[in-house]
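[worker-b] picked up task from shared queue
[worker-b] task type: protein-ligand structure
[worker-b] ligand name resolved to zinc ion; SMILES cross-checked against name lookup, match
[worker-b] sequence length check passed
[worker-b] input payload:
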Amino acid sequence: MSIYDGLKDAAGVLKEAGKIPEYRQILEALEKMLDLQKKNTELEKEVTDLKEKLRIKNVLVIKNHAYWYKETGEGPFCTRCWDSESKPIHMHPNGNPSFYSCPNCKSGSVKAKPELDDDRPRVMDMRDSCQ
Ligand SMILES: [Zn+2]
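[worker-b] inference finished, payload out:
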């Protein structure tokens, strides 16, 4: 039997016996216990989230305006989403193979992979636009 069930049974016995002030004390204790359980659950989640953020923070490195996993080189991840919301959001290629942008916050593109820069001059075929 849980503490909650035990207190609830005790409250029922007190109510049957006409001991209303004691019955109300038990109900107040039950209410406080439920509030504390709820707070405890919230704090446990917060601790878990903070541990995960710390774990990720210790394995990320910033390079070329993006985050990358230190050991695997996986990336790029959006710095804005990580810094503001602690969300490791994969950035997506954006036209030129060296540029990436965030699908979550759409904060613009960064030259995350300068080694892939496609800086060849674009030749525009005038026949396509002037007919
Ligand atoms: Zn973002």
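[worker-b] attaching auto-annotations
[worker-b] The pocket of zinc ion is lined by residues 78, 80-81, 89, 102, 104-105, 107 (CB under 6 Å).
[worker-b] releasing lock
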